[in-house]
Specification:
Layout (H helix, E strand, L loop, with lengths): L6 H18 L2 E6 L5 H11 L3 E4 L3 H15 L15 E6 L3 H9 L3 E3 L11 E3 L2 E2 L7 H6 L4 E4 L2 E4 L3 E4 L7 H10 L4 E3 L2 E7 L2 E3 L8 H22 L7 H18 L5 H11 L2 H29 L6 H5 L6
Antiparallel strand pairs: 1-3, 1-11, 2-3, 4-10, 5-9, 6-8, 7-8, 11-12
Helix pairs in contact: 1-3
């Protein structure tokens, strides 16, 4: 018969397991586990088996172990995890892609009914349509100010009704109505609250960013830096091309207004002295454009012209001969 471990022995084993995971993994997802059942948690563990480990426990025990382990190893960045252990949370240690791990966890969310006194995590809207309830239930809907009508011997909801708002507590009437309609409005599972990666802490929303999002944000930041550098006349790599062009424009304006000359300004001065050169330079381009468009029109006309049937001429007589 196996001897059951004492509480002290269980704590030592838990402490050793957490220390081993902290040494082995550099990526940790901090997940809240409100209203998550043991069967559901077991399914998540099976789904993540291979490259991830789910560890649940008391916050005080996890904080104590992390602090002592950080002191022993000198790895002070682990202390960033301590501030995240608030509420009913667990740690998911992983070596896989963080986004893929989060998507795998999301597969195990299950629907749940609205229980009395529960804080609604989302807005609950009752859709319009036939409820299947008999007309004797209309008074129940009237208490909740839900517009209804009798259609074919059953109660029908006329318009969508916002029954519960996010953050509000579920009342007894709301819970009874949702139960009658067979609506399970809430879904529960491990919800990722924060991400720890090699000492850095960031929001799980970062995992949704794509390469296009990063490029767009970088381009936006680069344009702001360029505008600021140009505004205060501070040279930067991003603003340098614009500064050179603006400087060239200023020098060119001086050269045009005075007798000062330099190679890059000669052609501009020639055009200003003899505006007809503008027309000469523009004529070949205009002719090329016209030729291209004219050629296309000619081809279209050729396609539209149909050959004349000359079979009557070949016979040598007309219809009245």
């Amino acid at each position: 018969m196996a001897v059951k471990a004492t509480k002290a022995e269980k704590k030592v084993a838990y402490d050793q397991k957490l220390c081993n995971l902290l040494d082995e993994f550099s990526q940790v997802l901090i997940a809240s586990a409100d209203n998550v059942g043991s069967t559901q948690l077991q399914g998540i563990r099976k789904g993540l088996r291979g490259d991830s480990v789910v560890l649940m426990g008391k916050n005080t025990m996890m904080k104590r172990t992390i602090k002592l382990h950080a002191e022993r190893t000198g790895n002070s960045v682990l202390l960033n995890l301590v501030t995240l252990l608030i509420g009913n949370v667990g740690l998911i240690f992983t070596k896989g892609d963080l986004k893929e791990v989060r998507e795998e966890i999301a597969k195990y969310k299950v629907g749940a009914p609205a229980r009395v006194g529960l804080v609604a995590p989302i807005d609950v809207v009752v859709p319009p349509g036939n409820t299947g309830l008999d007309p004797s239930q209309t008074s129940f809907f009237q208490v909740l100010n839900i517009p209804t009508k009798i259609n074919k011997g059953t109660v029908e909801i006329i318009t969508p009704v916002e029954l519960i708002r996010k953050g509000e507590k579920v009342g007894s009437s709301e819970a009874a109505l949702l139960a009658k309609l067979g609506i399970r409005p809430f879904s529960y599972g491990l919800n990722i609250e924060s991400v720890y990666d090699n000492g850095s802490i960031f929001s799980p929303d970062v995992l949704d960013l794509t390469e296009e999002d990063l490029l767009a944000k970088f381009a936006s930041g680069l344009s702001m830096v360029t505008a600021l550098a140009l505004g205060i006349s501070y040279p930067t790599l991003a603003a340098a091309p614009h500064m050179f062009i603006n400087g060239y424009k200023n020098v060119l304006a001086i050269a045009v207004a005075t007798d000062y000359d330099f190679p890059q300004a000669e052609k501009v001065k020639e055009y200003l002295k003899d505006p007809s050169k503008f027309a000469v330079a523009a004529a070949p381009a205009a002719a090329a454009d016209a030729g291209a468009s004219g050629g296309g029109a000619a081809k279209e006309e050729e396609k539209k012209v149909e050959p004349v049937d000359e079979s009557d001429d070949d016979l040598g007589f007309s219809l009245f001969d």
